[in-house]
Amino acid sequence: MENNNKARGKNAGTEKKKNRTDAPHTSAAKKDRRVWQSRPDTRFDKRRNVTVEEPAALPALPSDESGIHGDYENGAVIGRNAVRELLRAERPIDKLLVQHGERNGSIVVLVAQAIERGIPVIEVDKAKLDHMAGFAPHQGVIALASEKEYCTVEDILQIAKDRGEAPLIVICDGVTDPYNLGAIIRCAECSGAHGVIIPKRRAVGVTPLVTKASAGAVEHLAIAKVSNIAATVEQLKKNGVWTYAAEAGGASLYETDLSGPCAIVLGSEGNGVSQIVRKTCDATVSIPMYGQVNSFNVSTAAAILLAEAARHHHKS
Fold it and tell me: In whole angstroms, what is the distance from residue 96 CA to residue 117 CA?
């Protein structure tokens, strides 16, 4: 009896081992694939008993019958809301890529609008969409469009003049998180701001993640990219725009008159508004705080500041 139990135990262990090596979707197999993707040179593939040479990095998306290839990082608009606003803005679109099997909800409307405009709609694998979106949530749809064109500060001032309104401008002094910048752009557009100004260096630009985080608001708002934020503040002041740095220790937001031409300067996530920019601004404005934490997230602060500025600008 004891020998039989030992035999059964031995056979059971062999069977489990056999099942692990034969199963195509085991954790060991997944780990092996991850090693293959991450190592830059070669590896020994135990399953095929061969040594596989690997590229130094993941290859670019291969060409196929749909003509999808190369790097579309700057021209990719990801997510249903962002693609919907892109279609509304009527910016030139090269292709609309839809995940295989995704034919429900708002995607049906997006596909119909694309077909109506003569935009090619192509079904692709989820893995390809994941790669193109940088593995950010894409909700089964990506549009390939021309890169967002930046405008000038003069263009933003002209937009306000054409509308017959006092300029309301947002300046981002070193915002590096794409989700924060996207949220700020969304707040600015919803508040009726005439444009957003961002720096060329040491800050995030309008990337696919920013577009998605803005829920497509980038398609409806002028965005200028400048070399020097302090010099831009001086330029706005010469054009009669009052500039306010959003920082602690300033005048209360609710006691500040923001009804005239104004620009609100938001600082970086870690350091806030830089010292030179803060000194260049006309004044500093602060949001009253009543809790234990000493500051808001920059995009949350933008929502509060812009909502108050919009109330001043649109008093009936």
Answer: 11
